[in-house]
Amino acid sequence: MKPFLKLNGSNLYRQRISMGFIIITLCILISGCSSDASSEPVVLMEPIEVKLSASSEEINLNETVHMEAVVTQQADVVDDADEVMFEIATLDGVGMQFEATNQGEGVYVFDYQFKAAGKYKVTSHVSARGFHSMPSVQIVVKE
């Protein structure tokens, strides 16, 4: 009777080396794909909170108003917002957006001088930590 698989010493040695290589490769792949919770950034599911304020909600023509957006998340300051813009628009919707300045400690500011009398809606557009918030205030500019 003939043997099913005829292996001499060198073929058996090569087969064991190949099998060892395959096992080591699989172990490396499996351990490399395992998840380690400590290496992933912590993402809070609580939304950001933005408190928008203006130095005055009623001003005279050509006066400068100081606008401030304080950004927090679960009572922690957010000083790493992706984008903070202030939109100044007339009540009929025509407006422009301006980039805010990061003052640190979650405070983003913008100063603006109104050139025309009327009622304006100021909206802060804040994108941070996967959330977006758009609180607004109304400012009346008198002649």
Topology:
Elements lengths: L8 H24 L16 E6 L3 E3 L3 E10 L2 E2 L5 E8 L4 E5 L1 E4 L2 E7 L4 E11 L2 E3 L2 E7 L1
Parallel strand pairs: 2-11
Antiparallel strand pairs: 1-3, 3-4, 3-8, 5-6, 5-9, 7-8, 9-10, 9-11
Compact summary:
The protein has one helix at 9-32, and strands at residues 49-54, 58-60, 64-73, 76-77, 83-90, 95-99, 101-104, 107-113, 118-128, 131-133, 136-142. By secondary structure, the protein is of the alpha+beta class.
Q: Could you tell me the strand content as a percent range?
A: over 45%
Largest sheet: 6 strands, mixed
Total number of beta strands: 11
Radius of gyration using CA atoms only? 31 Å
Low-confidence segments = none
Report the order of strands and helices. HEEEEEEEEEEE
Shape summary: rod-shaped
Distance between the termini: 112 Å
How many distinct folded domains? 2
* Average pLDDT taken over every residue: 86
Predict the CATH topology of the largest domain: Immunoglobulin-like
Report the helical percentage: 10-25%
If you had to describe this structure to a student in words, what would you say it looks like?
This protein has 143 residues and is α+β, with helices and mostly antiparallel strands. It has two domains: 9-39; 49-142, Macroglobulin (MG2) domain (Immunoglobulin-like, Sandwich), CATH 2.60.40. 17% of the residues lie in helices and 46% in strands. The protein has one helix and eleven strands. The chain has one helix spanning 9-32, and strands at 49-54, 58-60, 64-73, 76-77, 83-90, 95-99, 101-104, 107-113, 118-128, 131-133, 136-142. Strands 2, 5, 6, 9, 10 and 11 form a six-stranded mixed beta sheet that branches. Strands 1, 3, 4, 7 and 8 form a five-stranded antiparallel beta sheet that branches. A hairpin with a 2-residue loop joins strand 9 (118-128) and strand 10. The longest helix is centred in the N-terminal third of the chain and has 24 residues, at 9-32. It starts with 8 loop residues before the first helix and ends with a strand. The model has no long low-confidence stretch (mean pLDDT 86).
